[in-house]
Amino acid sequence: MEIVVGTKRWSSWSLRPWLALKRTGAPFTETVVELRQADNRSEAAIRAAGSPSGQVPFLKDQGLTVWDSLAICERLAERFPQARLWPADAASRAVARSAACEMHAGFASLRGECPMDLPLRTQASVSEATQKDIRRIVDLWLGLRASYGAGGPFLFGGWSIADAFYTPVATRFRSYGVQLADYGDREGEAARYAEALLATPEFLAWEAAA
Ligand SMILES: N[C@@H](CCC(=O)N[C@@H](CS)C(=O)NCC(=O)O)C(=O)O
Fold it and tell me: Residue 61, Cβ neighbours under 10 Å: how many?
């Protein structure tokens, strides 16, 4: 199995399935394509590595190429059921998929204004639209932690693909100095969750290689 990812400092989409793949415990090789190269060289390199979409990440597995972060996570969840990449309970799983999909398809303002840049530390003043995204994320995190999080520090207690999808968000909050207390996190629960995401051995391994 091989996963092709973009520059680890920046590639938030690559980080998500890479975390899920690490969680499976399966052996894999990894190819890193350097993003942001001049003269469209990144896209050429991504295509040369075998990406159908011209983007990273993608997974090569059993003669199959699977692309797009969410599709790769779903593939891994099916291939490695013992890794429990989604919550075991069907109702919780449906909600976890909703949370992951909301991230995958949304929060465009936060993503555009505060791109993932792992070593960056700054105090940003963000637009109304990004503030709205952050408020929604805090509300989502608090609601999921309260309803499903009793069994552990993550959204559904144990770690799941939903947490993979919000790990790059936690890095953005850290990089851009976002104080979650200003966005409805009155008791610090969302901030604690963000800290838990950034303290997993899998995330720390990615960050150390960035
Ligand atoms: N929807 C895709 C988005 C993938 C994406 O936007 N990847 C970026 C890097 S994070 C990319 O490949 N950009 C091409 C480039 O920089 O040349 C996914 O979820 O995997």
Answer: 18
What global pTM score does this model have? 0.97
Please say if the pLDDT value at position 190 is more than 90: yes
Pocket lining: 171 vs ligand 1, CB cutoff 6 Å: no
Determine the atom of ligand 1 nearest the C-alpha atom of 13: 10
Report which ligand 1 atom has the smallest distance to the Cα of 36.
16
Give me 50's structure tokens: 């075998």
**CB 11 less than 6 A from any atom of ligand 1:** yes
* Residue whose pair of structure tokens reads 């099916």 in the numeric block: 78
Looking at residue 39, its pLDDT comes to: 86
Rounded alpha-carbon distances, angstroms, from residue 147 to 83, 144, 150, 156, 163: 23, 5, 8, 8, 15
Dihedral of CA atoms 55, 58, 60, 65 in degrees, nearest 10, equals -70
Q: How far apart are CA 181 and CA 185, in angstroms?
A: 4
Domains and CATH numbers, the chain: 2-83 (3.40.30.10), 90-209 (1.20.1050.10)
